[in-house]
Amino acid sequence: MRGVGQHGVRRILCVFPRYTSSFGTFEHAYPLTGGVQAFMPPQGLLLIAAYLPADWKVRFIDENIRFATDEDFEWAEAVFVSGMHIQRQQMNDICRRAHAFNLSVALGGPSVSACPDYYPSFDYLHVGELGDATDELIERLARDPARPAAQVVLKTADRLDMDKFPIPAYELADIKHYFLGSIQYSSGCPYQCEFCDIPGLYGRNPRLKTPGQITRELDKLLECGISGSVYFVDDNFIGNRKAALELLPHLIEWQKKTGYVLRFSCEATLNIAKRPEILSQMREAFFATIFCGIETPDPVALKAMHKDHNMMVPIMEAIRTLNDYGMEVVSGIILGLDTDKPETGEHLLEFIDHSRIPLLTINLLQALPKTPLWDRLKRENRLIEDDSRDSNVDFRLPYDHVVATWRDCMGRAYEPEKLLERYEYQIRETYPKRIQPRTRQQRSWRNIKLGLTMLRNIFWKVGARGDYRRVFWKFALRRLARGEIEYLISSVLVAHHLIMFARSASRGKTNASYYSLKLRESAETAVPTEHKAAATVPTLLADRPSGQRVTPV
C-alpha cells in the first residue's frame, strides 16, 4: 500500500543520522569483515520511502555509511529524518544543514513521538505510527513543499494496519554494507516493565504482519544482497504466542526453499523457555541467537521492576534450555537499580561466569520518557536534567560508585581470556545442537570468498597485530584443528568488538548509559569510513533501539 499525493511529484531526501559509538553497533568488527560499514538498515525510513506515492522520487542516505552532500540537498524538495533519543544531536544537525538550503524537514520516529518538545527547529513533526498523519504529511507536501510559516505537528489517530504495510525499500540502501539484516513481524508488547517505553509508544496488544509479508520481505533482502543473519527486531517475538506459532512453519519452509542461507535472531522474554513447541520450530527455522532482557539475576529487583515473568523459570535453567535448542543467549543487564547493593557488581560477574553468556549489554539505568520509571522518579524528584552525567537517574547508591561498578564490570567481563572461554563453552555445548544444513547455496563462491576475506582480516588484525594474540591463537588453533572455521569467524568478529569497546568503557572513554545524551560523546560518533581519513518500524521513519539490544551474527 502507498500514500497518494494529489497535486504533484516531489523529490524526497530520506536521511538517517549516524549512531553514537556504542556497545551495540559493533563498529570494531567492521574492519574484520568484507566491507561492512553500518549495523542494520533503518527500516523506518525505508518503510516510509516505500509508502510514498509511486511517482515521487526518493533518495536514501544512511550517514553511518556516507554523509548527505550539498548535491543531495540541492536535489531535494523536502527532507525526512528519523531516529532515537541517542541520535538527537545528529538529527538536529541534519535539520540545520537542510535549512541552509531552505528545505522543509519532517521528523518522525520513537524520539519525537515520545518527546516532541525536543525538536523545535523541525518544520513537521510526525507523532505516532504510520497512518492518517502520514497521509496528511504527504498531501501537504504534494500541495506545497516549501517550509511552513510555523512548525506543524501531525498526530496519528488512525494507524495503518500492519498487514497493509509495503515492503521497506531495501533497494534504496546498500544492503551488503550492513552487519545484519533486519525485519519486523509485530509491534508492541503485553508486559509493562518499569523502564521500557514500548507499551507507551506502541501498545500492549501486539499488531502483526502476515507470514506472507515476512517471507516476501526476506526474498527482497536476499535480492538486495543481504548475507549472514537477519534480526527480527520485534519488541517481543512471543508477545503473541499464537501468531509466532503461525509464522514459524512459513519460515521453516522459506529456509528449505532458499537453502538456509540466512540465520535468524530475535528478542523475547525469558519465559520463552517454557514453550518447547515454539523453541523446537525456532530451531528448525535456524534461529541461532535470542536476546533476553534478563536485566538482573536478583529476584527482588525483578519484582520491583515488574519483570516477574523472568522468574517463571529459574534464570539459569531457562538459559540452559535455550542453549539446548541451539540458541545462544544474549542478555540485557541493568546497573543502578534501586535494589542494587555495594556488592551487586561482584554478583553480576559471578552470574556471567556461571551463565556462560558471551555477550551481555551491561547498561546504566536511564529513565526514558513514556515509561513508568520516568513517572515514578519524577514523583520522587529523582530525575536529573544534566547532560554531563551518564544517567538522568538519582541512584540510591552514590553516583560515582555506580559508574565505577559499571566500568569495572565491563573491563573484567570482557577480558579476552574470559570472553573466549565463554565462546568455547558455546561452541562445545550450544552450537552443535543447532540444525546443521549443508546446502549448495551456503557453499556458493560468494560465501566462500567472503569467509576467506574475513579469515585473512582476522589473522592479520587480531592474530598478527592484536595485543591479545596469544589468547586468540589458543582459541583459533583449536577451531582450525577441528574444522570449525565458521565458529571461529563468527565468534571472533563479535568478541573483538566487545574487547575493544569494553577497554574504552573501563577507562571512562564511553558513556555508561547507551541512552545518555552526555555532550562529550558527540565528538566520538561512529563516522563513515571515508570521513575518518577524510541501535520502531511501524512508527513513521523509525528505527529499533540497537544501543541497548544487540545480537551477534
Outline the fold blueprint:
Blueprint lengths: L10 E6 L26 H9 L5 E6 L7 H6 L2 E5 L5 H12 L4 E5 L1 H5 L9 E4 L4 H12 L8 E4 L25 E3 L2 E2 L10 H5 L4 E2 L2 H13 L4 E5 L8 H18 L3 E6 L8 H9 L2 E9 L3 H6 L10 H10 L3 E8 L8 H12 L4 E5 L7 H8 L19 H15 L2 H14 L15 H20 L4 H13 L3 H22 L22 H5 L20
Keywords: Iron, Iron-sulfur, Metal-binding, S-adenosyl-L-methionine
Protein name: B12-binding domain-containing radical SAM protein
InterPro entries: Aldolase_TIM, BchE-like, DUF4070, Elp3/MiaA/NifB-like_rSAM, HpnP-like, Methyltransferase_Class_B, rSAM, rSAM_sf
Summary?
The chain has 553 residues and is α/β, with parallel strands linked by helices.
If you had to describe this structure to a student in words, what would you say it looks like?
By secondary structure, the chain is α/β, with parallel strands linked by helices. α8 runs parallel beside α9 (276-284) and α16 (445-464) packs across α18 (485-506). α8 (241-258) links the parallel β10 (228-232) and β11 (262-267). The protein has helices at 43-51, 70-75, 88-99, 110-114, 132-143, 198-202, 211-223, 241-258, 276-284, 299-304, 315-324, 344-355, 372-379, 399-413, 416-429, 445-464, 469-481, 485-506, 529-533, and strands at 11-16, 57-62, 78-82, 104-108, 124-127, 152-155, 181-183, 186-187, 207-208, 228-232, 262-267, 287-295, 328-335, 360-364. The chain is globular, with a radius of gyration of 23 Å. The protein has two domains: 11-155, Rossmann fold; 180-433, Alpha-Beta Horseshoe (pyruvate-formate lyase- activating enzyme), CATH 3.80.30. The strands form three sheets. The protein has a six-stranded parallel beta sheet with strand order 2-1-3-4-5-6, with helices on both faces. A six-stranded parallel beta sheet has the order 7-10-11-12-13-14. A two-stranded antiparallel sheet has the order 8-9. Mean pLDDT is 89; it is low at 519-553. The protein has 19 helices and 14 strands.
